[in-house]
Structure prediction request, 325 residues.
Amino acid sequence: MIVGVTGLYTGSEVEPGYSIIRCLNNLRDPRIKLLGLSSNPVFGCAFRKDLAVTNYLVPPLSADNIELHLRRLKEIKSEGGLDVLIPATDKETAALVPYAGELGSVGIMTLLPSVSALNAVSDKDGIARFQSKNILTMPSLSLESPDTTGEQPAAIILPLAKNPIAAPILHRQATGNYYSAAVLADRRKKIVAMAAIHQLLISKGGSTWIGKIVSASPIGETAKKLAVSLKWVGPLTINFFVSEKGRIFIMGVHPGLPDWINFVADAGLNFPLLMLGIIGGKSLPAQPDVEAGGFFVRMSVDMVTDMRRINLFSIKGVLSQDESE
Prediction:
């Protein structure tokens, strides 16, 4: 199976595509060949030899050039093969949803929501109505693992653009906590998997740099309930704010996987692999929750190459890690 993944920017704000490729690459499954699809020859982690086998340049995806983008995907399909496409950013998912049928007709399979479900995600009034009908609270620190109950994290959200590990804000200065949940629904709109984390440190643009896996309820149950109400298909990310009094607020809903999904895969729940199973026609049972307490810290990663390979990628629009130019 040849899988193409977008959303590979790995600068100050890490796009989810990098984490998705990590999830699948770490399996070391020879049946899965990974393609990186990037609109920038430099900032798309194309020169990391331990990620995608082949990288392709594609036109930036927008409503104005969707036909050009689709044409490029079909070229990649005919040149080297492309069986599955996983768009990893909100913008790409929104642009491709109306064309899922066209992609499927040429053998490029996707796992995308309906147009109506996608529109519902962007309907702030609709999300607000869901919020008002599902007022939930949770006891202080009820989502923490037993061995950390009562402890106060040293740092929380930082409004930093490039260096997220600096000048931590003391927890006592905060008025609440931030959480994020990922949900995966199959084509019958049945919830297959859910995972949630406590975001201890994020960048200005929302990338998670430090986090801890938490138990499912009630953050996870709220996420599941929202996905069901939306009649969602595919991956969905919901961000939450929990006030000091335990009131849960929905802060954002995104039609795809989060940038932290590879950390959950390391803990035993591989969302991208489950997606490939659903796309392949498997009927998957609901997956067990990930054990709470897993902790991660994201680190910056250097990519070293030379100008010759950058120029080659820019001109040819394809870069294979098997080549030895």
Residues 140-174 have pLDDT under 50 and may be disordered.
